[in-house]
Amino acid sequence: DVRGQPFVGQAGQLLDRILTAAGLLDDAFITNTVFWKTPGNRTPTPQEQAVCAPFVERAATLLKPKAVLLVGAAAAKAVLKTDDGIMRIRGQWREWRLSEGEIAPPVIATLHPAFLLRQPQAKGLVWKDILDLSVRLRSEVVEPGA
Q: What would the DSSP string read from start to end of 8-20?
């Protein structure tokens, strides 16, 4: 909260290192699904995420991203509107239907860097997701009918 930035501390540093290694850091816009630090740094509640959802969606509408990386279960569940666990949905490309502008960026969910700090053996899964994201961002996708 003091710095006014998402993903700070050890988890944020790890995310920055991952994105830098993939050559994506300079192309990334990073935000949270909740714009304040929750008490005790707990996972945000669905109600807290719902309060911020219109602002997250508006940012995405304005940015028109080629792809979106959802980092962690809370973000993935909120954006994809699912109760599925992160291990079930990570690594799968889905579509995020925004409520305005007829925009539907492709999204891929991955594990949160805080989880990787506790379970470093899972870094390979995240690296695979990041490489998939990199390929998607760097490829020229031809729209149907174009």
A: -HHHHHHHHHHHH
